[in-house]
């Protein structure tokens, strides 16, 4: 099923924050199909290893070199398959009231 909403997250060297962000997203009872797309901007190998273990990420994009926020946003936007997109950074915690 094609997702209606793509939730796009940019990440860099903050696996613990990213995990909390993804968990908060997955706790919401969305009325539409949702995909979580994370674009990591060349985190350290240790951080990337932790990020790869996070459950709830549908698509993880990685980079060999840091592209900066603009480049990372462009990359994650291209990967989105949803009709609508919602962007957040890894330290955001979405709440139920955001869902329509």
Beta-strand residue percentage: 15-25%
**Cα-based radius of gyration, to the nearest Å:** 13 Å
Structural class of the secondary structure composition?
alpha/beta
Task: Summarize the helix and strand pattern as letters.
Answer: EHEHEHE
Largest sheet: 4 strands, parallel
What is the terminal separation in angstroms?
20 Å
Strand order of the largest sheet: 3-2-1-4
Please report the total strand number as a whole number.
4
Shape type = globular
Low-confidence stretches: none
The averaged pLDDT comes out at 93
Q: What is the number of helical segments per DSSP (H or I, 4+ residues)?
A: 3
Helix content: 25-40%
What does this protein look like?
The mean pLDDT is 93. This protein has 3 helices and 4 strands. Helix content is 32%, strand content 23%. Strand 1 (5-11), helix 1 (15-27) and strand 2 form a beta-alpha-beta unit. The chain has helices at 15-27, 45-51, 68-79, and strands spanning 5-11, 34-40, 59-61, 84-89. With 100 residues, the chain is α/β, with parallel strands linked by helices. It is globular and about 35 Å long.
Ordered list of secondary-structure elements with their pairings:
Elements: E1 5-11, H1 15-27, E2 34-40, H2 45-51, E3 59-61, H3 68-79, E4 84-89
Parallel strand pairs: 1-2, 1-4, 2-3
Helix pairs in contact: 1-2
């Amino acid at each position: 099923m094609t997702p209606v909403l793509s939730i796009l997250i940019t990440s860099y060297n903050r696996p613990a924050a990213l995990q909390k962000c993804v968990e908060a997203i997955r706790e919401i009872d969305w009325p539409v199909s949702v995909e979580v797309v994370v674009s990591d901007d060349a985190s350290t190998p240790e951080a990337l290893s932790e990020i790869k273990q996070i459950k709830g990420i549908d698509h993880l994009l990685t980079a060999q070199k840091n592209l900066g926020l603009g480049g990372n946003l462009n990359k994650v936007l291209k990967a989105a398959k949803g009709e609508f997109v919602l962007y957040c950074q890894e330290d955001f915690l979405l709440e139920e009231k955001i869902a329509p």
